[in-house]
Every structure is written in structure tokens, then in C-alpha cells.
UniProtKB/TrEMBL annotation:
Chain segments annotated as transmembrane: 17-36, 56-73, 79-99, 106-124, 136-153, 174-196, 208-232
InterPro entries: YwiC (IPR025576)
Keyword entries, A-Z: Membrane, Transmembrane, Transmembrane helix
Name of this protein: YwiC-like family protein
Highest taxon, organism lineage: Bacteria
Organism: Streptomyces paromomycinus
Amino acid sequence: MLVVPFLAGALPVGFDGWHAVLLPAWLLAYCAAFHAQQFVRLRRLSRNPRAPRRHLAPLTGFGAAFAVCAVPLAVAHPWLLIAALCAAPFFALNIGYAYRNKERATVNGIAAVVPACGMLLVSYRLGSGTVDSGAWQAAAACLLYFTGTVLYVKTMIRERGSEAFRVASAVYHGLAVVAAVSLDPWLAVPFVLFFVRAMALPARRVRVAVVGAVEVLCSVLLLAFLVCGGLLPG
């Protein structure tokens, strides 16, 4: 979720030096956000005052490392500050869910997906200087896939056996096929496969490691179709 949209935006326009700074900045921001959420959650819920404090050191470290990467990026490309402001409401929503100890909520998962898919637009503009309709469509394809992943993974782990979640995931993936085809007919291939896995695998007992491995393969497949398809130049 963190790397695929970034690469889908960067590879077609040429991975350059600023991309090499943006990628670690993005990953460090995610790590800092994770520890911020854990600090907020444990400060409210834990009776042990040491529990939330354990997240302060990594939060500070990741935050400082992020700043080292982010400051030169912002100086060279001030529009990145607008991109950060666009992501801020989703981060705030994640913090709110952490505060209520509901990090695994479906809405919270989707809220994390949106800025991650938006990174495709950021890395694309960083290399091309603009954002065209193809980049928006590619970002939409990422959003379709990773939103579906939130639902699908729940049917395999936390909501295993839930008929409501299984049906919701199946319906969503069916609609996602139609939406993906409207973006690019070639996307029918990966999205039909995503639909098949959402229909077939929840009925089977699959180990968590296998679930994760399948999602890695699906992500790589999506990346290949986005980079080699007709949406983005390259």
C-alpha cells in the first residue's frame, strides 16, 4: 500500500534524485504516524504510564528523520506542502480512531488507504511537473484495489466466518471490476483475478502468512499493469 502507488507514479516518468528523497520521507512519515497513534491510544487506555512513553523515542526518531528528508523537498517543491495538507485530515481521522481504540475499523482502514494512493499523484508530478488524467485514473485504480483489500483481508482474518463481510467484499470486488474496466480495459485482467480471490479464498482455511503473500503478488500484478498499461506514459 505504501510502495506500489509511489512506484506506479514514479517509474513511468523516470525515477530521479528527488524520488530517492521522497520515498524515505513517505515511509518515515508512516512510521512516525504509527507511533503517534499508539502513543495517543495507550495514553488514554493503559494503566501503565510507561506503555505510551515507549512510543515517544521512535516517534521522535522517525519524526526527526522525516524532517531531514522533508525540509529540502518542501524548499525545492513547495507544492508538496499542499499535498501534505490534503493528507492531514486522513491522519487526524486515524488518530481519532486510535484514541477510541478502534484502529481496526473498516472506515479507519480506508482512511489510511486514501493518502497512500494519493502518493501516486505526488510521485508522478515530482517527475513530470504535472498531473494528467492518466495519473488520476491510475490513482483511482489503486484506490479501488486497496479499498477492496481492506474488506477482503477482514474476511480472511478478523471477520472470518462473517457472512455480511463476505457478501460486502464480493459485491465490492464485482463493482470494482466494472469501475476498473471503465478506467482501462486492460485492468480487467488483474481486477477479475482480485474478484476471484475475494470469492474463493474466504471459504478456505488459509494461513495468515499465505494471505499476506497473496496480497503482495496482487499488488505487484497491479503495479505491472499500471506501469505497462495505457493509463500512464512510459
